[in-house]
């Protein structure tokens, strides 16, 4: 029986190769972890670039899902499992808009089947 694993990746705008970030046994787990990575990146862009547009979007989006970003642990807290797909799509699309700017970072995941 094959086991499917999901590996998350990040490629920074100035780096030529996608770097693996984490490995998961569920697609939802990979998306959930990418949500944390993407919000961490967005907070950094808002902070470093003093970009109020990004900070406002992050706050409004997190509030709409009744969750928050824990800066100490670099993760989104209180996110319901049923909301993972919708929030993932929303934040993925938003970070994708910034790819052509000095802030651009690409996030994704890939599925791999392990035979045994």
Description:
The structure is a single chain. The chain is α+β, with helices and mostly antiparallel strands and 116 residues long. Helix content is 42%, strand content 28%. The protein has helices spanning 27-48, 52-64, 84-97, and strands spanning 3-12, 19-24, 68-70, 75-77, 105-114. The strands form two sheets. Strands 2-1-5 form a three-stranded antiparallel beta sheet, with helices on one face. A two-stranded antiparallel sheet has the order 3-4. Strand 1 and strand 2 form a beta hairpin. The longest helix is centred in the first third of the chain and has 22 residues, at 27-48. It is globular and about 50 Å long. The model has no long low-confidence stretch (mean pLDDT 89).
Task: Produce the secondary structure layout.
Layout: E1 3-12, E2 19-24, H1 27-48, H2 52-64, E3 68-70, E4 75-77, H3 84-97, E5 105-114
Antiparallel strand pairs: 1-2, 1-5, 3-4
Distance between the termini: 6 Å
Q: For the report, how would you describe the main beta sheet? A: 3 strands, antiparallel
Compute the gyration radius: what is it? 15 Å
Beta-strand content bin: 25-35%
Mean pLDDT metric: 89
Q: Level of helix content?
A: 40-55%
Helix/strand class: alpha+beta
The total strand number stands at 5
* Apparent shape: globular
Order of strands in the sheet with most strands: 2-1-5
Order of SSEs: EEHHEEHE
Number of helices: 3
Low-pLDDT sequence parts? none
Supply database-style keywords.
42% helix; 5 strands; single chain; two-stranded antiparallel ribbon; three-stranded antiparallel sheet; alpha+beta; 116 residues
């Amino acid at each position: 029986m094959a086991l499917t694993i999901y590996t998350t990746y990040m490629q920074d705008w100035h780096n030529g190769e996608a770097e693996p970030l984490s490995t998961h046994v569920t697609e939802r787990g990979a998306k959930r972890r990418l949500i944390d990575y993407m919000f961490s990146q967005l907070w950094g862009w808002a902070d470093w670039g003093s970009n109020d547009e990004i900070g406002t979007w992050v706050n409004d989006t997190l509030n709409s899902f009744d969750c928050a970003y824990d800066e100490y642990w670099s993760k989104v807290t209180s996110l319901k499992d049923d909301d993972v797909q919708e929030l993932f799509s929303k934040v993925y699309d938003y970070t994708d808009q910034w790819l052509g700017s000095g802030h651009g970072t690409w996030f994704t995941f890939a599925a791999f089947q392990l035979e045994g």
